Amino acid sequence: MIEPENTLEIWIEQFLTDLRNANRSPHTCRAYATDLGRLAAFYHGPAEAISVNTLREFLQSFAHLKPASRARKQAALNSFFTWAYRHDLVSANPMAKIESVQRPTRKIRALPRAQVEKILNVIPTNQLRDSLFFRLLFETGLRVGEALGLYVEDLDLTLDDEHMTVLGKGGKRRTVLLDDPKLVVQLRSYLKQTGYQHGPLFRARKNGQGGPLRYQSMQQRWQNYCEESGIKCTLHQLRHSHATELVNDGVSLATIRKRLGHKNIQTTLRYAEQSDETADAELRAWRRKKESLSR
């Protein structure tokens, strides 16, 4: 008979509680809860007896998914069993013997400013929240979850030194400069009209409760605006577009890394490859100048 405290469901519940206490992002907690819940539905034996073969069979059931989705499930399992090993619940991490999914390098898909502005321009003037939220993503490169988690208290609108404190991945905080004048004006106007002095910066309007704003809701609203403008663009592409614009304008990768909250510079380097056209233009201009001087 399986002891109640040794059931897989209990372990998963404890693991997720520790994640939340460690300030892991709500998105990560939800994703891990979903993936581990599927493991609990798949396996009904003693939790400590889960073998490498059991995990192989479980992961094989997701073979039809894209590499990124399968890699995420592996990450959830690895994190869970690393936690279980650290708490002496298992003698070893069985995921250590599972080969990691190799994800193909994703090409950064960025939109030029003109196209993003075209989407933003279809947002009705009375939709202050939507207009500010999406422009904030574009002008700062915030992750959607980071923007949803902003509080009024995270803002410092000191004249000529406007910035905000962002809670990023892994519970790490960083300061992001609000350097776009149009965004700052829009932000001040939004706070004045809503009267918000503390609490969440962006709030749901359902039933007038002003509760938490859901990712899915804003994603749907953004897609509606994209369809109206006739331009295809995901919410995450706003982050890519901001980073690519900074690279093309000559901002250093170190500065871009800090602004975007990347853990390592390798992630930021992906954007450098997008500046090939700019680099080519500079080289052509240099060649023309050199040739004109030699005549």
Largest sheet: 3 strands, antiparallel
Give the CA-based shape: globular
**Radius of gyration based on Cα positions:** 23 Å
The structural domain count equals: 2
Q: And the CATH topology of the largest domain? A: hpI Integrase, Chain A
Number of helices: 13
In the CATH hierarchy, what is the class of the largest domain? Mainly Alpha
**Overall CATH architecture of the largest domain:** Orthogonal Bundle
> Largest sheet, order of strands side by side?
1-2-3
User: Termini distance?
Assistant: 91 Å
Residue share in β-strands? under 5%
Spell out the CATH superfamily of the largest domain: Intergrase catalytic core
The secondary-structure class comes to mainly alpha
H/E element order: HHHHHHHEEEHHHHHH
Q: What ranges have pLDDT less than 50 throughout 5 or more consecutive residues?
A: none
Helical fraction equals 55-70%
Number of E-state strands: 3
What is the averaged pLDDT score? Answer: 89
